[in-house]
Amino acid sequence: MNNHFQILIIGGGNAGISVAAQLLRKRKGLNIAIIEPSDKHYYQPAWTLVGGGVFDLKDTVRDESAVMPKGVTWIKEAAASFLPESKAVSTQNGAVYTYDYMVVAPGIQLNWNAVKGLPETLGRNGVTSNYSYAYANYTYECLQQLKAGQTALFTSPGTPVKCGGAPQKIMYLTADYLRKHGLGGKVKVELVTAGGVIFGIKKYADELMKKVKEYGIVLNFKHDLVEIDGPGKKATFKVTDAEGVSTLVEKHFDMIHVTPPQSAPDFIRNSKLANEAGWIDVNKFTLQHSNYPDIFALGDATSTPNSKTGAAVRKQAPVLVQNLLSHMDGLALEGKYSGYGSCPLVVGYGQLILAEFDYDNKLDETFPFDQSKPSWSMWILKKYILPWMYWHKILKGTA
């Protein structure tokens, strides 16, 4: 295989595949390679619905080969390090690939080991997470087994996470499931989050608080999960008060849905591409790297201060493609990403609040009605339309 490519893309997830497809639609004949080690490609937004028992896990996965755009060279290896001055990337296999331009889109890293005891008990003892293909079905098993007098905890860490609403979505589904099965108010449902608010935008937060009260959910803010004792059914949280003083608090659970701490992948954090916080250092509007103009990046591993969602990637991809082609042609970068993010907040079976906003937390809504109100039509969007769009439009570069 030739080891030099005109455009080298790191990551074959949503971002990498859709950018490659859009580039080839704009300019046929580009010499593009994607470095991606995985055999499988996942539609992760549906894992919340899998955990709620209303989506088939098998429909969230396809072979990576089936989504790789025609005309792209697939390097089935894992990137290990960058030599940006030499325009080179080394892989874990020891191979080195060079490029004229690079797009970095490796996604986010789930740090299960950051919570003591979590890896040993995950998938057992009522400990689950929709953030993994392996455990989404187990989530539904756990909520089905809840009984009167028991407690279900739903955690969210102090780090950025992909799909910031996911820790709450499964909580609302669980509360609705309990209500539909005569257990409403009889099982204690608690959100235990390192954050300080239910949602960062008041319009949506107000509606979420109505659902919290309706379900009788207990809210615990500034609670960061640090340890789990699965067999003992105990979770330990670091609780920070208004003065910044931290103490440890232990909570009993019968079911606990864990959102793991997250970061950029280690090979990004330890590279020259990262800023001090470990994220790929890009201009938040143009998506061009701050120090290396021939490098662009998008998706969850970048420093852009938007919500880390697939919807953000869908808005970033055409901006990056426009600006990369302009850069290749020696033109000014005119594409601007607004910081758009979308969070389809499932608040019960058949109920969804569609939050859409930009960098300034200003509403950037799509539909001509109040999207903060729980809606059946938006549930249909989440369950049927968006998965179809992902496989048939987004990954093919046409949406």
Tell me what you see in this structure.
The chain is an alpha/beta fold and 399 residues long. It has two domains: 181 residues, 3-Layer(bba) Sandwich (FAD/NAD(P)-binding domain), CATH 3.50.50.60; 140 residues, FAD/NAD(P)-binding domain (3-Layer(bba) Sandwich). 27% of the residues lie in helices and 25% in strands. The chain has ten helices and 21 strands. The strands form six sheets. Strands 1, 2, 5, 6, 7, 8 and 19 form a seven-stranded mixed beta sheet that branches. A hairpin with a 4-residue loop joins strand 7 and strand 8.
Protein traits:
399 residues, alpha/beta, FAD/NAD(P)-binding domain, 2 domains, seven-stranded mixed sheet
Task: Specify the CATH class of the largest domain.
Answer: Alpha Beta
Query: What is the percent of helical residues?
Result: 25-40%
The whole-angstrom Rg is 21 Å
Distance between the first and last residues' Cα: 32 Å
Number of helices: 10
CATH superfamily of the largest domain: FAD/NAD(P)-binding domain
* Low-pLDDT sequence parts: none
CATH architecture name of the largest domain: 3-Layer(bba) Sandwich
Number of strands: 21
Structural class designation: alpha/beta
